[in-house]
Every structure is written in structure tokens, then in C-alpha cells.
Amino acid sequence: MREVHMLAQIVITSDLRYFLTQYNAKRIRQGDKPLTLRQVARETGIALSTLTGLTTNRAQGIQFETLSTLCSYFNCLPSDILRYTPDEE
Prior knowledge:
Blueprint: E1 11-14, H1 16-29, H2 37-44, H3 48-56, H4 64-74, H5 78-81, E2 82-85
Antiparallel strand pairs: 1-2
């Protein structure tokens, strides 16, 4: 009999909403206006629908180029805006 191994599902979700909230709190403390998704979209060239999908966790994935652009824009690491949750078996 052949053994079938089930691969654990990798669950990676976006923490962009939380990250942006923390980022804006820091901006406000420094006397700057908070960033809107529309402003981030305009300044990065990332579609507003893509950013909205990432902040609502409706996105099914993220392009490496998009991730790289966000990390460059916010001067952060991918782990600051993405969260890995191990599959519970």
C-alpha cells in the first residue's frame, strides 16, 4: 500500500492594516498627517484594489514586486506586513 503524506497548509496573511495603523500612529506623534491607502497607491503605483485586498485579507496572494515596493516605501521587512500562521493538525 502506498502512503499518502498530506502537506501542511501554509497560512500567510497580510498584516498591512495593522502595520499601517502603527505606522500612522508614529506619523501622528511626529506631527505628520496619517497616510491613506489612496496616497500609498498614488505614491507607489500599486493599485488601490491590491492594497485594499491586502488590508482586508481578501487577497489570495501577493506579487514579489508588490511586496518589494511596499517594503521599500515603508522601509520595512516582509515580516512586518505578512504573518505566518502554522497549520494546526
